[in-house]
Amino acid sequence: MLAILMALMSSPNPAAASERLPWITPMDYPAALAASRPQGIVQVRLTFGGNGRVTGCEILKSSRSSILDSTTCALSQRRGRAKAGAPRVQVLSHRWTAPAPR
């Protein structure tokens, strides 16, 4: 089992190219960043338990905003789901774009 997880952790994932995590919406852009409006791509390694829920999140590539990075992990752990089955690890990316100023 450990060998399978290690192989998954080192394998590239074509899903990372989408750069949008389906459980994060534009409305999730942190209000604390409204003035500075940083943008960027966060690459994460998500660990999914057998029930399909995210059990771990590690930042592999930062957006250069600690708030965007931590928000990506927090939302992934709260909302992220995958098909139930064997525990697995996936590398995914999310592109944060700042909303238009109001």
CATH topology: TolA/TonB C-terminal domain
In this structure, how is the largest beta sheet organized? 3 strands, antiparallel
CATH architecture: 2-Layer Sandwich
Instruction: Provide the spatial order of strands within the biggest beta sheet.
Output: 2-1-3
Distance between the termini: 51 Å
Tally of helical segments: 2
SSE sequence, one letter per element = HEEHE
**Large-scale geometry:** elongated
Describe the structure in your own words.
This protein has 102 residues and is an alpha+beta fold. The protein has one domain (2-96): TolA/TonB C-terminal domain, CATH 3.30.2420.10. Helix content is 23%, strand content 25%. The chain is built from 2 helices and 3 strands; from the N terminus they run H-E-E-H-E. The protein has helices spanning 2-10, 66-79, and strands spanning 40-48, 54-61, 88-96. A 3-stranded antiparallel sheet has the order 2-1-3. The longest helix is centred in the C-terminal third of the chain and has 14 residues, at 66-79. Residues 1-17 have low confidence and may be disordered.
